[in-house]
Specification:
- The protein is an alpha/beta fold.
- It has a single domain, classed as TIM Barrel, CATH 3.20.20.190.
- The chain is built from eight helices and nine strands.
- β6, α6 and β7 form a beta-alpha-beta unit.
- Bound molecules: SN-glycerol-3-phosphate and calcium ion.
- SN-glycerol-3-phosphate binds next to β2.
Length: 232
């Protein structure tokens, strides 16, 4: 039987629906994925919103910095096909019965990392979830701080272009559950090394069947892609 890693929709079912929106998440769930990934950041009035870019132009009809707008201003925008930018609270509520959520703490530039971690924890603690959200980030100090604030939360170390030994060392230090590794950096050797340290490995972003096959052969634990329909 073919080995099947977990299937995770990247920014929801973003290949076919507006990324990081209620619709993209609902369509991912409908497809029967094991989970979906989403990005969070803070609005100007410190509300946790679901959004990827630093600026509004690519995915909305607005312009300027996301962090320069209040939640009320962001809610007026069209995030694609009439979809609104969701808050984290709305998203947690909508998917309290599953699937698994993989939440990326998204930082642009060199801002302070603690406010987003604190706001995330506060929002999460207000919503009972069947599957507690798992967190990832390229911002390692933020992950280290998160681990100090929550001893049990699932953390995946997001990394690119870093020596793999330092990735493994950091993951051990913060008792991470695993690694989110770029497809270009996946190899059977690295996955074996991670598994020996009891870390899972998820590959991103897997957007075609050939790459998916390579990741499967390397025995990754999960694949994260924009077109989960192509990866089943
Ligand atoms: O899941 C990891 C992946 O989402 C990181 O890259 O740019 O798509 O947020 P990006
Ligand atoms: Ca992301």
């Amino acid at each position: 039987m073919k080995y099947k890693p977990l299937l995770v929709a990247h920014r929801g079912f973003s290949g076919r629906y507006p990324e990081n929106t209620r619709l993209a998440f609902a369509q991912a769930k409908k497809l029967g994925v094991d989970g979906f990934e989403l990005d969070i950041q803070l609005s100007r009035d410190k509300k946790v919103i679901v959004f990827h870019d630093e600026t509004l132009e690519r995915t909305t009809n607005g312009s300027g910095l996301v962090g320069g707008k209040t939640l009320a201003e962001l809610k007026k925008l069209d995030a694609g096909g009439g979809e609104k930018i969701p808050t984290l609270a709305e998203t947690l509520k909508q998917f309290k019965d599953g699937p698994q959520l993989y939440i990326e703490l998204k930082y642009h530039g060199k801002g302070e990392y603690k406010p987003l971690v604190n706001a995330f924890l506060k929002t999460r603690d207000r919503q009972k979830m069947k599957y507690p959200p798992v967190i990832c980030s390229f911002n390692w100090p933020a992950l280290e701080y998160l681990r100090k604030r929550d001893k049990n939360i699932g953390i995946e170390v997001l990394h690119i272009r870093k020596p793999f030994t330092s990735v493994l060392k950091f993951a051990g230090k913060i008792k991470a559950w695993g690694l989110f590794t770029n497809t270009k950096e996946i190899s059977p050797k690295k996955v074996t090394l991670a598994h020996k340290q009891d870390l899972n490995v998820f590959a991103w972003t897997v957007n075609d069947r050939q790459i998916a096959a390579r990741c499967r052969l390397a025995m990754v634990d999960g694949v994260i892609g924009n077109y989960p329909d192509k990866l089943r």
